[in-house]
Amino acid sequence: MEISDLEAAIEAANNNDEATLVSLFKQFSAEEWADVSYDWKYENRQKVSDFIQKSVKILPASVEFERIQYLVSEYVLALVYLPGSIDLAATALVTFWNRHQNGDPKELIKQLERFSEHPDGERVAEIAATAKGIDFQK
Predict the structure, then answer these.
(1) Considering the chain, what is the average pLDDT of its residues?
(2) For the chain, how far is it from start to end, CA to CA, in angstroms?
(3) How far is residue 53's CA from residue 10's CA, in Å, rounded to a whole number?
(4) What is the C-alpha to C-alpha distance for residues 101 and 107, in angstroms, rounded to an integer?
(5) What confidence score (pLDDT) does residue 138 get?
(6) DSSP H or E stretch at residue 23
(7) Of 75, 65, 70, which Cα lies nearest the Cα of 33?
(8) How much is the CA Rg of the chain, to the nearest whole Å?
(9) What's 121's DSSP letter?
(10) In this predicted model, what pLDDT tens digit does every residue of 84-117 receive, in sequence order?
(11) 17, 54 in Cβ contact below 8 A?
């Protein structure tokens, strides 16, 4: 996956173009999404964050939860310096989960637990409490 592919996905999300977004998510593996230039994502962190937040509201259940987990991991990597990044990560995960519930709930809980242990995860427990069908205990 090249930066241009991520930029195309960002444009598709900005235009609410589900078909293009789904096509790009199917074209590249979860790992390939994570492998896009760290420096580019860091320099464009607000744009990447906005993309993640929009994508979880657009993508259908045919997109595997694992891909969303990889995407959200950017909040503890290239996007960690955004204010509220850990809470944004939890919000993105729970938003997608509540729309589709198509992954392993144990994996969701594990990831939310890791976020809640992060020093900047101030609202993770509150956000996790809104996840459908899971019992998040902090």
Answers:
(1) 93
(2) 37
(3) 11
(4) 12
(5) 67
(6) helix 18-27
(7) 70
(8) 14
(9) -
(10) 999 999 999 999 999 999 889 999 999 999 999 9
(11) no
Which whole-number Å values give the CA distances from 119 to 35, 59, 102, in the listed order? Answer: 25, 30, 29
In the numeric block, which tokens belong to residue 114?
């890791």
What's the CA angle centered on 16, arms 13 and 17, to 5 degrees? Answer: 85
133 burial (CB, 10 Å; 0-12 / 13-18 / 19+) is exposed
Task: Give me 73's structure tokens.
Answer: 């991991």
Place of tokens 């293009």: 20
**Distance between CA 52 and CA 71 in Å, rounded?**
7
Letter for the amino acid at 106? K
Q: What DSSP character marks residue 13?
A: H
Written as six digits, the tokens of 56 are 């979880």
